[in-house]
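Board notes, transcribed. Complex of a protein with uridine-diphosphate-N-acetylglucosamine.
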Amino acid sequence: MRILSVVGARPQFVKLAPIAQAMKGRADHVIVHTGQHYDALMSDVFFEDLGIAEPDFNLGVGSGKHGHQTGAMLSGLEEIFEQVRPDWVLVYGDTNSTLAAALAAVKMHIPLAHLEAGLRSFNRRMPEEHNRVLTDHAADLLLAPTEVAVDHLKTEGLAARTVLVGDVMTDVLFKTRDLVKGRTETLPLGMDAGNYYVSTIHRPDNTDDPDRLKQILRSLAELDKPVVLLAHPRLSDVAARHGFDLETGAIRVSDPLAYPQLVNAVMNSAGVITDSGGLQKEAFLLRVPCTTIRPETEWVETVELGWNVLVSDNLSALTAAVQRATPQPTEESPYGTGKAAAAVVSALAGPR
Ligand code: UD1
């Protein structure tokens, strides 16, 4: 069985790690990197730290408007698929790389499997929402991470193609957590354990309106503990363009962290403030309170179980939300137990 994985953006490299490991001895695994993320800290460090083999192909597409970026990937992927002729194309999550690979595969009649299928924000302003809905409806095999995702797929008439496999991010997170626990990892910017927050802000809805961004930064600056702001290139770019100083009040700016350092930083923090999907879930799995600057989340379980609070329109509520009392402990595991990657390979190998 030959499986071709297409990845391009930071969270996809993280999800690729346990899949690549589970494929060993069970499938011929070809990795294609679209080049959507290309900075060393956004890409290379993930392959190195998570022990993923160098991609077999790298399209080097880089940044651009949605149409330009997705189109360049589509055309590059078509040629690679012709050459490799995989039994399955496997796509991850909801990025432009995912949509491009999905389109290329279905046009060439190559079976398509979608990992992280069925997530919905129901917010059509998000490019990720279009990407995931279109990919789910194009795919032959829908690998759902949660019961809630399975329900969404059922509602959309896609139950027959759906398999609940769990969340591969749990696999890699638990493994990395255990690894960093066993060694002395320094905290970012010399922070003291338990006495700082970790923050990431990168969604266009939060960064592209200077007034909104200013308000978010003002709230972070007023928090009661230092805030390690891991600056995505888009955030640094917008701040430079508008002449904002990111490092005001409690905020301390850091480059994005490699995965083991990120896990260690979150594990030892007093809380996370983010608009990232993955980080909300990572905070929950590490039982660190999270505040999400978005009107909704795909990871509804984190909110229902009390570990995530959403703040969007009323940004003045952000400080109180972040400084809230510690949530009630929970033993629930809506994201699986860390064995999802093996279930993915079995689903791909199973009868169709
Ligand atoms: C993409 C995904 C998003 C995911 C995120 C993870 C889409 C539509 N969005 O968003 O779902 O949560 O990745 O980080 O696919 N840039 C660099 N260096 C890089 C990469 C990006 O400088 O290595 C800058 C460029 O200015 C670029 C901007 O960041 O224009 C945005 O990058 P892009 O890949 O378009 O989207 P993300 O915001 O990273």
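The chain has a mean pLDDT of 96. The CA atoms of residues 35 and 60 lie 4 Å apart.
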